[in-house]
Amino acid sequence: MLNMAEGLARLGALAANPVVATLATAFADVGFELAVVGGPVRDALLGRPTHDLDFTTNARPDDILRIVTPISSTQWDIGRAFGTIGARVQGEQVEITSYRADSYDGTTRKPVVEFGDSIEGDLLRRDFTVNAMALRIPEIKLIDPTGGVEDLIAGVLRTPIDPAVSFGDDPLRMLRAARFSSQLEFEIADDTRTAIEQLRQTLSIVSPERVQGELIRLMQTDDPVRGLRVLVDTGLIEQFLPEVSALRLEVDEHHHHKDVYEHSLTVVRQAIDLEKTRNPGAEPDVSLRIAALLHDIGKPRTRKLEPGGGVTFHHHDVVGSRMARKRLQALRFDGATTDAVADLIELHLRFFGYAEGAWTDSAVRRYVRDAGAQIDRLHILVRADVTTRNKRKAARLAAAYDDIERRIAELREQEELDSIRPELDGNRIQEVLGIPPGREVGEAYRFLLELRLDEGVIGTDAAEQRLREWWAARGR
């Protein structure tokens, strides 16, 4: 719970930050107002780490640039049209924005910007009351016109004005509600949640890039499941990631299968726990977390009700991989993330064949080869995918994966397992067979690669002999 005495002390410490103090003096010296605004104030009151410093001022962009240039090492004005100037002050990146009011015209995907004259008016245009507080500096005065402190104490997300108007100004705020619900572990006020349900379709005017950015921020939180439930329960996720809500399969009284939606959320949580255990202190692995969320999205499309009450989802891994790739491309994710998620989904069932019976070394090599750079993520995803309540089955699967990781480690010590390639390159193949570059060199290379996967390292002399035998058997 928020302790106001401690919170106010932390605000004083925020104002004393050398970067904050330097900017406060520079703006005050030329007669302009300046305040730390939004997240840094909220986090200071809550005792959470403060990462980015955002400021607001009655100065216009040209004035801001003129003021910060002498006290900063770098300046950028890419956000000038929106009233924002960035700078690096004493090694720290800051953004300073003129008082403003954003709104959408209801048809375009970009906000219309109007500059304002008062900090109170600026705060009213912000997304939630807990983000609509400012610390005026250098006098150290908390400005809270919408009751943000009270909502921090109550743990509630509420818009500063009528939520229908606020979400109409920027529909992305509905997605932010889900993100902050996870990030802060706050409940969403009833009228705010109702407005999301009623206005969810207006998210369509927001660019895919902005939606992607908020989805990433949600998945980077310690517990994105809370926010994901908000998105699904309000129907907002239907506007950009409908495959998730589709996981809530109808249950036929004569056919039984586990709840795929709840299973997927559990896999997300378990993947995050394993990620933190295996890579302590690392940045959140968004690709892994999205793969965990989407790993079963092929199930609704492949579900088949069998006689006798069984349910099958044949090839849902391949189908789900294609679906995920298409969706992430629509959301403008970069190629590396899209490839990683699609590959993980396609590979996530491969291990369960190992659990039924130990693989040969050749099968383990192929598993590593196919996983490529995703092998460590795949280890986590496959382990997280075990959500059975049957303790004996869970223990058996865990032991099987312990075994495959052990075998991979042993083979890595014996061979260059992570960069499996034939023992002869294309040039040597041409020399041994006496052939020019062309299709036949590629066929020979593939033969040697299969040989390497099947038998491991056999040495160049043996590889050359086997290559000659293969070539002779072709009738050359």
Automatic annotation (TrEMBL):
- For the keyword Magnesium, the answer is yes
Q: Which domain of life is it from?
A: Bacteria
Where do the HD domain residues begin and end?
260-381
Quote the SMART domains the UniProt record gives.
Answer: HDc
Question: Which cofactors does this gene product need?
Answer: Mg(2+)
Quote the Pfam families the UniProt record gives.
Answer: HD, PolyA_pol, PolyA_pol_RNAbd
UniProt keyword terms in alphabetical order: ATP-binding, Magnesium, Metal-binding, Nucleotide-binding, Nucleotidyltransferase, RNA repair, RNA-binding, Transferase, tRNA processing
InterPro entries cross-referenced by the UniProt entry:
HD/PDEase_dom (IPR003607), HD_domain (IPR006674), HDIG_dom (IPR006675), NT_sf (IPR043519), PolA_pol_head_dom (IPR002646), PolyA_RNA-bd (IPR032828), tRNA_adenylyltransferase (IPR014065), tRNA_CCA-adding_enzyme (IPR050124)
Matches recorded under CDD domains: HDc (cd00077), NT_ClassII-CCAase (cd05398)
What SUPFAM superfamilies does the record tag this protein with? Nucleotidyltransferase (SSF81301), Poly A polymerase C-terminal region-like (SSF81891)
**PANTHER family for the chain:** MULTIFUNCTIONAL CCA PROTEIN (PTHR47545)
Official protein name in the record: CCA tRNA nucleotidyltransferase
Give the source species.
Microbacterium suwonense
Q: Upper taxonomic classification of the species?
A: Bacteria, Bacillati, Actinomycetota, Actinomycetes, Micrococcales
